[in-house]
Amino acid sequence: MNSIKSIALVFLVGLFCFSTVEEASAQFPRIGKVKLPTKKKDKDKKATTSNTSSSTSKNTYQANMDEGYKQKEAKNYIAAYKAFNKALELKSGDYSAKKQVGETKNTVEDKYMGQMNTALKSGDCDAVEKDLAIVMDAFGTWYQEKYYKEKIESCKVANKDKATADKKAATAAANASKKAEILSGNKGKALAYTQYKSLDFKTEVKAEEDLMFKFVLNKTLMEEATERGVSTSGKTYLIINMEMAEGKVTAGPFMLDASALTMVDEMDFVMSVVTDEFNKELKSRQSEMGFGDALMLNFLKHSKSTQKRWIRLLAGNIAAGNMVAGKTNDVKMNMYFCKSNTDRKPIGKALASGGVKVKVTENSIKELYSSGRIPENYQPKPDNGLTHDLHKKSLNKIVWSTSEIKKDQTSTSGFKTTFSSLAGGIYGRVYLPKSLRNYGAVFGQPDNCGYFFKFYIDGNEVGSSAYHRLAEKSCNEWTTWQVGLAPKASDDYDYGTPEGFANILKTVKEGTHKVKVEMVLNFLEDGTPNLVKVASSEFTLTTSKSDKAKFVDKHETKVPVGGSRAENRIRITIENKTDKQIDYSIVGDGLSTGGWVYPNQTSCCRVPIGYWLKINDREFHKTTKSDDGKTIVYP
Length: 635
Fold this sequence. Notes:
The protein contains 17 helices and 27 strands. By secondary structure, the protein is of the alpha+beta class.
């Protein structure tokens, strides 16, 4: 019992003391360094802080929602979207915020996609790029970003192409205006230029430059033809004559139909270009080409094109030594109507005339050859040249003597211009500035190694010798060689001409005559023979009846024993299936004659029976009666 009382007393005392301390603590919270308990206030403070945080969170969400509605009403949809999106971040899954985010995003997309599509149509690439940046700043990521970036790049490329096209169009318009102005002041003229489509016309060019001519007419070709009485009902033909120091060449005829006549009042012609490079340039300029360009391309491919003729004119002047470093050569160009494809005689005055000075520099010839402007078959090769002073003084001449004239003879001693008989012998030597191969190169026919002699008695042409062909090495190298009209009776070799001369003398009366001999080369141009005289000479011949009879008896064409000339000759045809001229010869007792057959043509002659027929030095057979009417196909 006492124990229980004691415990109760202690409890009461403790309770009293605790209450006293708590009250003191409320009035004096800190005593010295000891912090007294304040449990009630801490609890209240914690409760207050919790309530404030909850209120702030609610106010920020609401503030963003309010800001979003405000901006939406003002139609600032990007600002509204950002505010609503912020609210949604603060209150994830919130229906109101989520709904507003979706609506404002759709509105922004519709607005800017519309703007960007309109800008794309107008080609305003910068506006599209600017709007895309705004949308991406708002959204961060957007499923349409890649699409519009590709559209922006396409837009920029299109704008660049358009700018280029506009520039080309402006240039073309300016050129057309400039061209019209220039051409109006150059009617009836032929103007030289060196760059295709250029209006920078030249009065002087370098030999190695590209060269073209623009022929400017006074009227259309139709009007010109009508005025001159040239028929336009069928085909109408043009030619162009080119002249330089060494000769004149004609390009064409070029055939034109009615549509060309009515449309053309100026035409371009190519003289000298590197063909491959020029074709590439033409291909790159196809969009610029018109009717006149189509004509030029057609004429460029023509077998008688101005380019081919110009090359020949250049090659001829180089070969003749007219084109040397530092020298300027005058070139003249004239365009005419002509009658037909075969009759190239000019009709009336020139439709257009002009020219240019062609200057040769130190490297011009080398450049003309190496660039391909003058192809290899037009280029000369090394030959024997001028062998001595006598050769130089006797260029393009045939000298004569009563004995052989050796190659190394340097004296004129023994040369004759008067012969009192045929029996004493008439020997000759021809002196040329270049080999036959190099003569042929001027025409693009370096393998044409044949020649013949034309004879004139007292000023009248009376006939010619057989056609003779030098061997390849001789053709390439020889610039001088022996020929003969009347070798002595003891001579057992043929100089290549006595048989023709003998046949001619049979019809000439005895007495004194002026004899002229011409050495002639034959070049085939567009199917037409082009006979070029390369050497000539004259001498006086006195002959008696017996003198002539002996000479004719030895050298005239013999008829085989067994019948008349007609009975002992048969007809043979040679069909040349090659694209080059071939030579044939007929060889037999007292006869050596021949001729030539043009590429892809058929021709020959009547041949004595029992004679040998050769084609290009290839022996075929002795002719027999059974050969009459036979066709020999070569090769």
